[in-house]
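Subject: design request, 441 residues
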């Protein structure tokens, strides 16, 4: 074996180790994120804690608000303590928070658990994406991150089976006890997960970085130039200069509607299907099918955008998402409904990523990270609003309007991203960073 082949094999081993560990961490992230929606029909039917639909919507929003806090804080904290330590802290936090939910004796304590879980969930995903980006082999960053993103939807599938198998015989608390089990994964991360090479180099810990790189025979990353607070502020102001304010606002509104749709449907899908006359077991099966569609969508969307253009695919994806979500309000034969749920999952779960792709393409290289980051941040307010909206509709006795309301959010995102793309006179930038797009989800 030649030396170059041996080096490639060793680098590939390190990449597989990091991606595998991060994939499992994101799997647990997805399980904890989706478990609430999977047990929610049971909580409402049994009136656990006297919960009402509007209170259930509030609880769903607590977790997404926690995710907003976690996502916003992740970068700063990771720069201080390291990506490995932050990943471990996030897994520990959302696991312990699920334990709070499992032992809670009141709606207030349960809500505290879901909020804390959201902070851990929101901090984990961008950190894990940064980790795999560090160690992905040359030219394979995008596909590696796409693979990582499938873990989130695999966690959604697992949440449905946990609810189907455990809630009826053992009660809803058992589902949250399962979400505590990722604590057992923490020692594995401590022992096996290497620290980010980029973090070690940036912190001047060159001996550690060289030892790690030498052990696996990989190259050290270059030292990145540090941006000052003034640089970041100027980059943000640049999004509003020279008439760019309208373009920026359109992107933010599209992102708001997109994440309202994603987290609203993720929280309320089983309950709305149950309200629509489907058996609980079938409603949970739809969660599995929906997330299978999400996995397929993540793998298909990037290729479609490369071929036809991200702005065009973003608008088409949201139109198809809106159509699919609206059709779910119609009681159809089981086979047809299952197909619609699958296709809706394909388009809905990747439509938001197409917004980030469009923003990235239409941004200059020096403003790209800021533009995508702020588009994601503004969109997360939609993630908080979506679960609340579903609860309000059910509380008002308008559950049949739930899917219609979410479909309208899809239509609005289609309009906003379409108008923004038509207004933009910039040419697509070659070689945009797909890892930044996925990290923003």
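Subject: RE: design request

Done. Sequence follows.
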């Amino acid at each position: 074996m030649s030396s170059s082949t041996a080096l490639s094999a060793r680098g590939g081993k390190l990449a597989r180790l990091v991606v595998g560990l991060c994939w499992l961490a994101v799997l647990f992230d997805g399980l904890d994120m989706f478990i609430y929606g999977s047990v929610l029909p049971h909580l409402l039917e049994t009136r656990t804690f006297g919960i009402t639909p509007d209170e259930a919507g509030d609880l769903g929003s607590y977790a997404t608000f926690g995710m907003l806090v976690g996502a916003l804080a992740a970068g700063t904290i990771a720069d201080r303590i390291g990506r490995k330590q932050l990943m471990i802290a996030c897994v520990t936090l959302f696991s312990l928070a699920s334990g709070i939910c499992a032992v809670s004796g009141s709606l207030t304590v349960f809500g505290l658990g879901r909020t804390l879980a959201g902070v851990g969930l929101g901090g984990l995903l961008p950190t894990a994406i940064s980790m795999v980006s560090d160690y992905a082999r040359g030219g394979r960053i995008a596909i590696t991150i796409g693979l990582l993103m499938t873990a989130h939807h695999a966690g959604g599938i697992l949440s449905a089976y946990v609810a189907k198998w455990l809630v009826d015989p053992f009660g809803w608390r058992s589902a949250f006890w399962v979400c505590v089990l990722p604590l057992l994964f923490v020692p594995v991360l401590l022992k096996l997960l290497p620290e980010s090479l980029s973090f070690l180099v940036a912190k001047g810990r060159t001996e550690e970085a060289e030892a790690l790189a030498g052990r696996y025979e990989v190259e050290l990353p270059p030292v990145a130039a540090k941006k000052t607070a003034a640089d970041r502020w100027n980059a943000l102001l640049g999004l509003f200069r020279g008439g760019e304010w309208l373009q920026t606002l359109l992107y933010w509104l599209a992102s708001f509607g997109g994440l309202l749709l994603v987290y609203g449907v993720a929280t309320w899908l089983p309950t709305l299907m149950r309200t629509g006359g489907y058996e609980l077991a079938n409603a949970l099966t739809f969660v599995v099918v929906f997330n299978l569609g999400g996995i397929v969508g993540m793998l298909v969307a990037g290729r479609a955008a490369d071929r036809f253009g991200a702005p065009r695919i973003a608008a088409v994806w949201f139109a198809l998402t809106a159509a699919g979500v609206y059709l779910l309000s119609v009681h159809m034969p089981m086979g047809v409904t299952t197909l619609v749920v699958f296709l809706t999952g394909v388009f809905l779960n990747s439509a938001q990523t197409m917004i980030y792709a469009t923003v990235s393409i239409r941004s200059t290289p020096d403003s790209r990270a800021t533009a995508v980051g702020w588009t994601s941040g503004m969109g997360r307010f939609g993630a908080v609003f979506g679960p609340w909206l579903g609860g309000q509709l059910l509380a008002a006795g308008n559950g049949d309007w739930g899917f219609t309301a979410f479909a309208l959010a899809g239509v609005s995102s289609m309009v906003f991203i379409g108008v923004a793309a038509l207004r933009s006179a910039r040419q697509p930038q070659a070689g945009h960073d797909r890892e930044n797009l996925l990290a923003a989800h």
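Residues 315 and 415 are 7 Å apart (CA to CA).
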